[in-house]
Amino acid sequence: RIPRHEFVPVAYIGAAYEDRPLPIGESETISQPYIVAAMTAAARVNPGDKALEIGTGSGYQAAILAYLGAKVYSIERNFQLADSARARLARLGFETVEVTCGDGTEGHPAAAPYQIILVTAASPEIPAPLMEQLDDGGRLVIPVGDLSHQDLKLLFKHGGQVASRFLDPCQFVPLIGRYGWPEKRDRVH
Ligand code: SAH
């Protein structure tokens, strides 16, 4: 129901319905559909849930969350990607998605707490602000690991306790920011 070909560059339209990530410019990618599905399923979206996405990219994952009835806040650090995702989402009718340009590892305190937080970039650890901004009963889905391989994890917060479940092995582009990886020039592998 979400036209993925609208979220990829013209040169990749022919590959839009293949189950693989595709380049979206700025050295970033739209995630593999299987992974988007796995993250979405793990998030268990209820209509009216507030969802925070870190890494807007093309806006595809944000559109899916909105389609399922979530009020979506999405943060993108690259302002060109943020601008084009905002315009694309509005054009396709997802004008309730709020795209903000900034460092999503700090979360988005203005609209916290969130029932759902999805991190769609690879993180060295779980950014503390995200855990703080997760509601009681909330679900955080995040790829955690090194720069080449990560474990997709579901964290469930309940009564001050956090339960963690391994979902899938995965490979995301890096989460760059205060609670993520440093900029490339400083990065140590
Ligand atoms: N969810 C996207 C795919 C994301 S690719 C989609 O559906 O198309 C990962 C994105 O995370 C990239 O666009 C990258 O610029 C962004 N990113 C990396 N670190 C970030 C940070 N600290 N805050 C916000 N966005 C970040």
Q: What is the string of SSEs from the N terminus onward?
A: EEHEHEHEEHEEE
Bound molecules: S-adenosyl-L-homocysteine
Number of strands: 9
Unreliable residue stretches: none
Report on the biggest sheet.
7 strands, mixed
Strand order of the largest sheet: 5-4-3-6-7-8-9
- Report helical residue fraction: 10-25%
Q: Mean pLDDT score, rounded?
A: 96
N- to C-terminal distance: 39 Å
Instruction: Give the radius of gyration.
Output: 15 Å
- Write down the overall geometry: globular
Counting helices, strands and paired strands, the structural category is alpha/beta
The total count of helices amounts to 4
Estimate the strand proportion: 25-35%
